[in-house]
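step=predict obj=Flagellar biosynthetic protein FliP n=292
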Amino acid sequence: MSRPAPKGHRNVWSLIRPCLLALLGLLFSAGLAYAQNRVQGDTQIPSLDSLLGDNGGAVSGRIIQMVMVLTVLSIAPGLLIMVTSFTRFVIALSFLRSGLGLSSTPANLVLISLSLFMTFYVMGPTFDKAWTEGVRPLTERKITEEEAFTKISEPFREFMLSQVRPKDLRLFADIAAATGRPSKNDPETAAQNNSAPATSPNRDQNAQPERQIELRILIPAFMISELRRGFEIGFLIILPFLIIDMIVATLVMSMGMMMMSPAALALPFKILFFVLIDGWNILVSGLVRSFF
């Protein structure tokens, strides 16, 4: 003999049943509306024929553009690291955390977010120029994709040339020559000309060769230069904290406190020192000014 359902279950079912009926009604109404649109020929879903060409189903330029956009979006984080100032910022902030002796404070999300906003500040003129001269004319169909790529990459090329070391450019130019693909010009001379004053006649005469440096040589050279500068700044950041560690360790040893960890005692002093000198202001200001 079956028992009647509890009163609580009946109350829950009485609340759920109207919701299910309303959902079924909405689905039925949507199906009728879609069927009516199909009958009238007013469908909003584009057919595959609009994406294909007329010559035997050849892939049209729209599909190629879609694939290119998806590819760029997938490698966007790598592009951010390769051609912007992000590398120098995140390395310097990582050295700061190591110097303070903090393993997870500030968190990685905080350091990366701060590095991103500093990157947007430094790269603002470059982004604006790339958008104005490349992206906007492309969206307005005033230039072709090839011209847009050249105009978009040109501001980033100028930025990287202003920061790269000639020695690093020479390294990758020699590697390219050893692999049988020499560069079109002397990248070391181009970098030296780019670092010269804008009023220099030598810079004006060599402006064209600068733009011809291949990105496969310029981008890795720029990354190595940024890594070097990031480590140089990191050494300057970590040096005062190292001195504090040495002083605290000497005091601990002289007092015979062998079981006490010098790092644990030095941590509050390092944090206090960094706060008293307004370390965040000095660090961020120095990192941003290093690009100008």
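step=describe
The chain has a mean pLDDT of 75.
step=end
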